Amino acid sequence: MNTTQEFCDDYERNAATADQVKYEVWFGEWALATDVCAHWLGGFNDGNTDPQFQCKWVDCPKTYMTDHGTDFDRTAATLGPFGTGNSTNVAIQNGKCSTDSDFFSQEEVQTIAKCALKSFDKHLNGTFFWTAHNEIEEKWDYVKAWDLGWLNHTRGDTAGLDGVPATPAAPSLDPALLEHAKESAEELEGELASAWKKFGHLLPFKIPPPPKKPQTPHNFLF
Fold first, then answer.
1. 3-state DSSP call for residue 71?
2. CA dist., res. 39 & res. 98, Å (int)
3. 211 versus 12: which is more confidently predicted?
4. pLDDT digits (tens, 9 = 90+) for 167-186
5. How far apart are CA 48 and CA 104, in angstroms?
6. Which helix (H) or strand (E) holds 161?
7. How confident is the model at residue 93 (pLDDT cuts 50, 70, 90)?
8. Helices in the chain by DSSP H: which ranges?
9. Is pLDDT at 59 greater than 50 in this prediction?
10. Exposed/middle/buried for 202, CB within 10 Å: 0-12, 13-18, 19+?
């Protein structure tokens, strides 16, 4: 699919199948990805199908376990072991990891998100997003997608989505929005560290907990 309308039609077509079911229907896990470029989408060092557009390559994240983690060789042209996917599309290359392409602008991604939310509210009883937070892929990241204006919506208010101005298209993401998304993610990691401190002793094995992160005010919708 290479147009926003194709994505909108696909979301509507899939969501409408729930009308044929007499029980409550929830969709998940879903994401705003427009291609199969997400890093290791098919498993460890593996992909899904071949991407339809050129994937974007970004610096791979570094471990937060600075006292215990070990970084990989960021100078290697290609890192194995390799899965079944094309290594030029999915393997780490010179310290870079693949992420979704820039074929669709921010404004177009927001259009796709609006279509998805409208179809979901029309036909479904609920949905759950792929993940709350990940390191590099904002289209698979609820916190970043919310802060970038793609998912800042609560169930039932889709009627007002048409009145919400779309985020202007840009060649790259707004640094201020990315910084805010980063702060939100750090708050979430801080909450996870707190939970680990409370309940980590219940596990049958010991793993060093993640470091504490600074707490910043933020509203989440899950």
1. coil
2. 5
3. 12
4. 333 345 567 776 777 777 77
5. 20
6. none
7. very high
8. 4-16, 87-90, 106-123, 142-147, 175-199
9. yes
10. exposed
